[in-house]
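Protein modeling request. Please complete all fields; requests missing the sequence field cannot be processed.
Requester role: graduate student
Desired output: 3D structure, token encoding
Chains: 1
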Amino acid sequence: MRSIWTGSVAFGLVNIPVKLFSAIDEKGLDLDMLDKKDLGHIRFKRVNENTGKEVLWENIVKGFEIEGKYVVLTDQDFEKASPEKTKLIQLELFTPTEQIDVILFDRAYYIAPAKGGERAFELLEEALKKTGMAGVGSFVLRNKERPVVLRSAHNVLILHTLRFIHEIRDPSEFVTKKTTTNKKELDMATGLVKTLQGDFNINQFKDTYTEQLLKLIKAKATGKKLPAAPKVLEKPSNDLVAQLQQSLALHNGSPKARKSIKKSTTTATKKAKTASKTKKK
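Delivered output (281 residues):
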């Protein structure tokens, strides 16, 4: 695999030549944009708004507008802005990873040693693993500076780019008004959380939506009858206590009890819907 960045990781006076690789391999169906009339491919062109003519990639430059005029920048200009940051990941401190709010995490990359850096690289990985610490610093990737966290996991070093704090929306505008919670409700909610408690395993989460969409596409391609759309989950009762009680019983009870609860919940929902329709009439 080809590296996306080469440079060095530095901590103290130790400098380690490294290579950076994307840890993300995004999956998804490759859907094309087509004209509804004849299914012709939709193509996007880079067009000069002054001449209306298409512009080749090699003739496109980047510029910043100042007082109505553009200052054109080259790759060399970006490197001149801070040459050391374009080739160096400077670890400025070490801290427990749990001190870093997960909302700040952005992208993940694998780091591997470049020629001559193997010994120092292994030393850094072992030090992070032994102390349980993560290195924090910053570097420039694709002309953009980012704070970063370097940690040891799965026997490799992983670099996470972080968001700057000014990029995170103020959570205060999303804080909901506090309502009174009685002890009975809280005890049941806590009990339900404990009942559903378990160890996290990402392997248990599957991209079922993409799988079903692909099945649908194949069915349409062969002219087969499309599978029926799955039923939308019934809306539960608005009685919070009843919801909690039924949830606890559903997960703690016997299979027969669970079936009975599901049946009664569905019946209650249908009655509520019927009553609602009657009121509208």
